[in-house]
Amino acid sequence: MHALGIDIGGTGMKAAPVDLDTGKFLADRIKIATPQPAAPGAVAGVVEKLVQAFYWSGPIGVTFPGVVIDGVTRTAANLDKGWIGLDARSLLAKAAGQEVRLLNDADAAGVAEMTFGAGSGEPGTVLMVTLGTGIGSALFVNGILVPNTEFGHLEIRGKDAEQRASERAKTLHDMHWKQWAKNVNEYLEHVEALLSPQLIIIGGGISRQSDKFIPLFTGLNAKVVPAAMHNDAGITGAAMASHPGSAAPARAGAGRNANPSPAHTLGASGADGTQGDQGLPGFPDPGLPE
Ligand code: BGC
After folding, report:
1. What is the pLDDT of residues 266-289, one digit of tens each?
2. Prediction pTM value
């Protein structure tokens, strides 16, 4: 199964066709700068270009850097405020010339990492944190995503965490690795105190340079690892979302119910356990630890 993944970021918009069995790209990704201001119409125009650049016809999944419920974008911390309350799924479907699935960018990256990357097969509580223009979060309990968590906006020292610990904050304030790592460390300690994850996966482009900051972390009980797919995880997760059921292996840590077939996943109770248009499988059971 193949699908096109489009990752809308505050700084760049990236796309690639993805093989959903491996999570790997079928062609080099294309990146276009996010229009500034990142108003809905302008961003939709870039989505149209990305679809055309691959001559794509087939399933499409799109990520958005904000809360997405039922295809409606509810927040837009790093994009134009015109997105708030917008039926973004319809707008982007028009631009793409076909239906699209829409989900939060960190959720998409997390699902990809839980399926093909650093969280594969990991049970218990896993937190993915993406450090980029903002800070994104994806929380998994026994492989099941809790969608639309916004832990990047926790307040630390009177400021939104992403203003101190995102990659953009590092660049903006010209922070050295040591200084920035201290901010990220403090942020992760805060998150750890609230959620007690046993694994924290650090994503975003800066995770390629994880050797410069992860070894500087102290005082954390969780294991901290870089994302295996780095900044490409969002594209893979977007593509996976276009096929309900393709994210089933994200449940790899879910004990007896690991890797349910999509039919089983969708059929057991008829419940669509995800919120909004995640494009992820409906989860018939709450995934409680057995
Ligand atoms: C947004 C999140 C998003 C993150 C990374 C934050 O500002 O609120 O929804 O996942 O940035 O893009």
Report:
1. 322 333 333 444 444 433 333 344
2. 0.88
Q: 250 and 106 in contact (C-beta within 8 Å)?
A: no
| DSSP H stretches of helix in the chain | 40-53, 88-96, 105-116, 162-165, 167-172, 177-195, 233-241, 262-267
CATH number at 131 reads 3.30.420.40
In a domain? residue 161:
yes
* Residue whose CA lies nearest to ligand 1 atom number 9: 66
Relative to the CA of 162, which ligand 1 atom is closest? 7
Answer yes or no: is 214 within a domain: yes
Ligand 1 atom showing the smallest separation from residue 77 Cα: 7
Query: Alpha-carbon distance 266 to 281, whole Å?
Result: 7
- Rounded to the nearest whole angstrom, what is the distance from the C-alpha of residue 160 to the centroid of ligand 1? 12
- Residue 259 pLDDT > 90: no
Distance 100 CA to ligand 1 centre (A): 20
Nearest alpha carbon, ligand 1 atom 11: 134
Name the residue with the closest Cα to ligand 1, atom 1: 66
Q: Which residue, among 248, 215, 245, has the nearest Cα to 114 in the 3D structure?
A: 248
Asked if the structure places residue 30 within a domain, the reply is: no
Q: How many domains does the chain have?
A: 1
Average pLDDT over residues 140-167: 97
Residue 106 lies in a domain: no
* CA 79 / ligand 1 centre spacing (Å): 10
Range of the domain at 194: 120-233
Give the tens place of pLDDT for each residue, 217-229.
Answer: 999 999 999 999 9
